[in-house]
Amino acid sequence: MAGAVEDAERRAEARPLATVERDALAQTPARDALAMLAPADRVKIIAEVKRASPSRGDLATIPDPARQARLYEEGGASAISVLTEGRKFKGSLADLEAVRAAVSLPVLRKDFLATPYQVLEARASGADLVLLIVAALDQKTLAELYALTTELGMTALVETHSADELDRAADLGAKLIGVNARNLSTFELDRDLFGSLVEKFPADAIKIAESAVLTPSDVAHYRSAGADVVLVGEALVTGDPVATLRAFLQETP
Ligand SMILES: O=C(O)c1ccccc1NCC(=O)[C@H](O)[C@H](O)COP(=O)(O)O
User: Fold this and answer.
1) Where is each Indole-3-glycerol phosphate synthase domain found (predicted)?
2) Residue 118 is part of a domain; what is its CATH number?
3) Which is nearest to 183 in space by CA: 150, 159, 207, 204?
């Protein structure tokens, strides 16, 4: 988290806030992620471009993230997540820009966002959604970043990992809320966490189960617990993305 903010501060030396703000406002409008991810009679998938991670190390080189994203679109994904953090995840804003230009789906900037500069930077690079991690932000900062995201026409995916964090997401009025099965400090995975928290979601929020999907039965597990959407990374970058997505979508109502 600290590294992501330091990296953004370094970028801000070359591209000041006023410039990134101007570029954000000049972007084509954000795609409607809430419409794409709305609850339906089938599960939906956010497919992630993920080269590496702190818990798993290197996963895939992904020399052409635009191609990877096109395969996700072909396989039936409803949105694309792009990890833009460089140190541990080996991602970049250039990946996000390439993906946004290659597909017609909404694109999420998945990173450790903690400043308005990073939110503006996301929009300036074409992001339609940004990730806001409740555990990483005090409520005042979370509310400020949430408001800026909405002002820019984007959607915030508000990520939680506990009942208290779900309450904080609800206090914001968040419409897209995720429960990450991965504890971001210990990297432990708990596929049952989503189901144990599902009753805490506000009635009008889209329910997303994040992480730890490796097989169609993992998707079915989240779906039967009440997920509208699942977010998948590793399984799609280590296997055939189109076949994997189709299997996940076909075998789950
Ligand atoms: O993936 C990690 O190791 C990780 C560690 C610390 C913070 C975030 C991390 N991952 C970000 C994600 O939330 C996942 O990339 C995403 O939910 C997909 O997870 P998976 O399908 O298990 O690859």
Assistant:
1) 7-240
2) 3.20.20.70
3) 159
Is this complex scored with an ipTM above 0.95?
yes
Domain count along the chain: 1
Whether the predicted pLDDT of 240 surpasses 80: yes
126-144 tens-digit pLDDT = 999 999 999 999 999 999 9
pTM equals 0.97
The active-site residue out of 85, 97, 165, 210 is 210
Burial of 185 per CB tally in 10 Å (0-12, 13-18, 19+): exposed
Cα–Cα distance for residue pair 108/131, rounded to 1 Å: 7
Residue of minimum CA distance from atom 8 in ligand 1: 184
Instruction: Tell me, using a 6 A CB cutoff, whether residue 50 lines ligand 1.
Output: yes
CA–CA distance, 49 with 236 (Å, rounded to integer): 8
Count of Cβ atoms closer than 10 Å to residue 7 Cβ:
18
pLDDT number for residue 2: 72
